[in-house]
Structure formats: C-alpha cells, structure tokens
Design a protein that fits this description.
- The protein is built from two helices and eight strands.
- By secondary structure, it is an alpha/beta fold.
- A four-stranded mixed sheet has the order 1-4-3-2, covered by helices on one side.
- Strand 2 and strand 3 form a beta hairpin.
- The termini are far apart.
Length: 123
C-alpha cells in the first residue's frame, strides 16, 4: 500500500541548499519560490524536500534522514572529492563499520541536517 517516504527539511538559504545538494549529485526536480519557498531533490530512489525557513539555525538542528545504499564507500568517495571539512557545516565523517551491523557515513549539510548513509554489512 505505501510506496515511499520523503523527508521535508527546513532550509535557511534556498540558494545555498540548491548548490550543496547539486554538488552531492542530487537533481533539482522542482523549485517554488512562491508560497514561502520549496525545493525537491532526487537521486536514484531518494527524494528530499526542503521548505524555506529563514530562522532555521544549523547549530540547533535536530533533523536527520537515514538513506540506505548498496555502495556507501563509492558514495563516500564521491562526497570526499568535494573536500568537505570534518568540522563545522557542512561536513562528513566515515564511512566506517558500526556495531549495529551497518557501514555508514555521516554528512551534516549547511543547515545542520544529518544525512546518515548506510548499507548492511555482509554477514
């Protein structure tokens, strides 16, 4: 019955969000600056939505999205090529094997949203 889910996250700066997610490899499927501002990004089967919130602060964000992958290392290499810092916003750490049976990397976007990208460990 249910087919998919799409996270809706706040964006303090729509242009900055567009630039960052395009660098990650997401396709901008729609942008509506009327009605307060809204963005839709797609990569493979992942869809992320953003609503403009000029008061949103990265250092107090508690938003997160878990994205399943079949090649977290390959995605990590592509993101690492962007030269993100390991401190501040945006940043990336990993990938590494986690005790709960996943290999994961973590990206904090410019708005402080955690993108946790993971795949099951063989075993």
């Amino acid at each position: 019955m249910l087919l998919s889910t799409c996270a809706i996250l706040p964006s303090a700066d729509m242009d900055r969000t567009v630039a960052f997610y395009k660098k990650l490899g997401f396709d901008l499927q729609g942008r509506w600056d009327d009605f307060g501002g809204y963005l839709i990004f797609v990569m493979d089967k992942v869809e992320l939505h953003f609503a403009h919130d000029p008061d949103h602060k990265a250092d107090t964000s508690d938003h997160a999205v878990y994205i399943r992958s079949d090649d977290v290392d390959g995605f990590g290499e592509a993101v690492a090529a962007l030269g993100l810092s390991d401190k501040g916003f945006p940043r990336m750490d990993g990938p590494e094997d986690r005790p709960w049976g996943m290999r994961e990397l973590h990206i904090l976007d410019p708005d402080g949203h955690l993108l946790r990208v993971g795949q099951y460990l063989d075993g």
